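Same chain as my last thread, 336 residues:
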Amino acid sequence: MNEEKFSIGIDVSKQTLDIGIVSISKTSHKKIKNELSGYKEMLFFVDSLNISHETIIIIEATGGYHYGVVYFLLEQGFSNVKVINPSIAKAFAKMSNLRGTKTDKVDAVLLAKLGKIKELPSYTESKSDIKKKYLVTTLIGLRKHLRETRQRRNTFEFQSKVIDMKEAIAPLSKVIKCLEKEIEKVEKKLCDYTKEDVQIISSIEGISEKGAALMSVEIGDITRFQNCKQIVAFTGLDPKVEESGTSVKKKGSISKKGNPVLREALFQSAWFVYMQAVKGTGDTIFVNLVERLKKGNKHYYQILCAIAHKLIGIIFALLKKKEKYVKNYHFDLTPV
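reply #2:
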């Protein structure tokens, strides 16, 4: 008699987890707390059904609330844990759940069914990777707060020409100094955590060490990308295509479906590369690229997109080969 094959789906919320277990003969469900005691209860439940630790487990990424159960399962020896983008789960739910019924139990079972019909990559991020990503999130928040506080102080300083605003300006100046110090500390930690990749990425003229550290964290393990097209799509720099029969065929702006933090960092570096290219002092590759696109009457934004696209391709090749960039040398972008 063949062993019955199971698939597990876990719908995550801040307080609870809904476990859906699907096999050919039956469907099971259990609701537990999203904490260690709940994870242990889930493990006992799974083991009571004689479910192999090689069983596919699908978990929808949910605002960081999924990390606890993910690492618990990995540490317990479950080798087929897959964390998916909510958009994948949403599309599958629309296709499968025609009646529009939506509950946590239904979502968990649908995730389990998704695991039985679709091949998905296993989860590879380490706790160190997550720690670095949260540092990036903290850095972005601090930078935003600094930018807003500076704007507020500038407004008060302008108004101080008419009204004495010293009492309002002084505390803002203290907050700005404090934020600047904390941002510097976080940036240094990120550079230290990603030292090897930072040295490689920042060898490209136009990418600072701070920018390189942020890119390294957002890219993660470069081996998860098999070719340049995959990492371009990951950044959201791939063109958005609309095609329907023979009447609609559009290939316009970038998709912007990828990683927004990585994309913004690339555009910041692309701007610097563009300015150097316009002056004629940049890398020959980018000088020629900008000149060609300008002759083709391309918009400034389109040129920045092209430079960012070229940058991520070069970064992909460098990280794959573990080599630093050589100026005016065109890298082969095919995977090693």
